[in-house]
């Protein structure tokens, strides 16, 4: 369904979209880079309002969020469109194409949330949620008007302008933000974007809500110990409590590099742990992804795949009293 774009600037015969740092110039009938925004009859519109390509119930650990409502489920949904063009995209069918959709109204979606067992709330994920901004903003705002205990989660590439981000953040409880690498070369070459706006989203969002970061380590591109160090140092400069998920890459879509060596992932993880309290590994079987107290080493959360056992009642260590960055 069409919906007027919320952030734009009128130019002569054209419109500048101001949702994300691409700031595309939109013309009648011509889409911006995300392929969801264009001008129609002189009005800038997004064509994916309420249009859902995927919906399901996931363990919240799958987002991944390890320090936010552990062991809960979360209603997860996405639309189509993305403002990045990552060569390794896991969801290119919906991010780079326009597949079949089903329309779900704001009310219908909100009414579904309480029908799900052990549910933490709703997560906008699968494609880039900020490309679905007009819809997620209305859903998130409405949810918080109705019931503040329903959590709103965003799983994002972090490529958004300041104004729309700040407008949405009061209604968001948790985000997992991709920090895809730590060089402009990587962002330009592999993702079709720039690094700095993502860093800015991380800085700003962490002041408003729970934040975790994911980096996909791609063989021969961003899997060096040096890059892991830079990523960890940047996150620590924001807050050393922010959990970092280092995930193993497998060939997908246009990227043909071999799967990242497990030893490289483990070296990156070891390096990142010098700067951050919580570093986890994704897409590798048999690694220890438990949460331990950073002060005394006490086991706080045991994870085996998506099976989770929690050994803490409040957000502090039962043994030494150290406060833990976690929302239970
Ligand atoms: S949201 Fe889409 S149209 Fe708008 S600036 Fe970003 S990529 Fe371009």
How is the biggest beta sheet arranged? 8 strands, mixed
Query: Helix/strand-derived class?
Result: alpha/beta
Text of the CATH class of the largest domain? Alpha Beta
CATH homologous superfamily descriptor of the largest domain: Aldolase class I
Helix and strand sequence: EEEEEEEEEHEHEHEHEHHEHEHEEEE
CATH topology-level name of the largest domain: TIM Barrel
Provide a count of the helices: 8
What strand order characterises the main sheet? 8-9-11-12-13-14-15-16
Q: What would you say the CATH architecture of the largest domain is?
A: Alpha-Beta Barrel
Number of strands: 19
Domain Radical SAM core: 67-288
Binding site for [4Fe-4S] cluster: 82, 86, 89
Cofactor: [4Fe-4S] cluster
InterPro entries: Aldolase_TIM, AmmeMemoSam_rS, Organic_radical-activating, Pyrv-formate_lyase-activ_prd, rSAM, rSAM_sf
